[in-house]
Write a structure and sequence with these properties.
Glutaredoxin, four-stranded mixed beta sheet, 5 helices, globular
Length: about 230
């Protein structure tokens, strides 16, 4: 007669405890959410700091500033940002310059005009450009060259394209209004006090040339509006 055992054998198929991985997977979404929140906080703080540090020149242009002058550029001499609206009501002589050009000596004539007529409202604005492969230096090198070689005091701005596309926004507008793009370095644009009328003079026209001086004198003779 068979005897039924009182003790059951150990079950070999007993279920093991659940692995930890599903539990970790359940926690990951929460960690991701926390990471996303942290990222948003960092981005938001950066935006706040940027707005707080934004200087006055980033404010909207004055309502009496001509559209032609509603541009800002970094000064070559100081690195500070300047709005061309600072020069509204002035006669502007705008020139694309280069340090290694056959016309580079025109710096001397431009500076002489500036010193002679600035009290009458003339401002010379220089825009170094490497459009014709004759201004390869850095902004610092260009500034030093202009200071030590010609004693330049008129405003110069950091190097940018003037005669070739894409031209800086001021030059794009000068080209559109005058119908003439610079064909070489030291092309000159004269802008009247209203900021509306633009005259164009080629590189070969020296600052002291009679034709050019006559046009400049005519603009200086016009009194500022108001």
């Amino acid at each position: 007669m068979a005897v039924t055992p009182l003790i059951r054998p150990l079950q070999s198929d007993r279920k093991a405890p659940p692995p930890l991985r599903p539990r970790a997977a359940a926690v990951l979404p929460s960690l991701r959410s926390l990471g996303a929140i942290a990222t948003l906080l960092v981005v938001g703080m950066a935006a706040v700091l940027t707005l707080a540090a934004r200087p006055a020149f980033a404010q909207p242009a004055p309502t009496d500033c001509p559209p032609l002058l509603r541009h800002t550029f970094n000064s070559l001499q100081t690195g500070e940002r300047h709005s061309l609206c600072e020069y509204r009501g002035k006669v502007l002589l705008i020139v694309n310059t280069a340090s290694f050009c056959g016309y580079t000596q025109q710096y001397e004539g431009l500076e002489a005009l500036y010193r002679k007529h600035r009290d009458r409202g003339l401002v010379v604005l220089g825009f170094p450009a490497n459009d014709f492969a004759q201004e390869p230096g850095s902004n610092k090198e260009i500034a030093e060259f202009c200071r030590t070689t010609y004693g330049i005091q008129f405003p110069l701005f950091e190097k940018a394209s003037a005669g070739k596309l894409p031209a800086n926004p001021l030059y794009a507008e000068l080209i559109r209004r005058s119908g003439q793009a610079p064909q070489w370095n030291f092309h000159k644009y004269l802008v009247d006090r209203s900021g509306n009328r633009v005259q164009s003079f080629g590189s070969a026209v020296a600052p002291e040339q009679r034709e050019f001086v006559r046009a400049l004198e005519s603009l200086l003779a016009d009194k500022p509006a108001g």
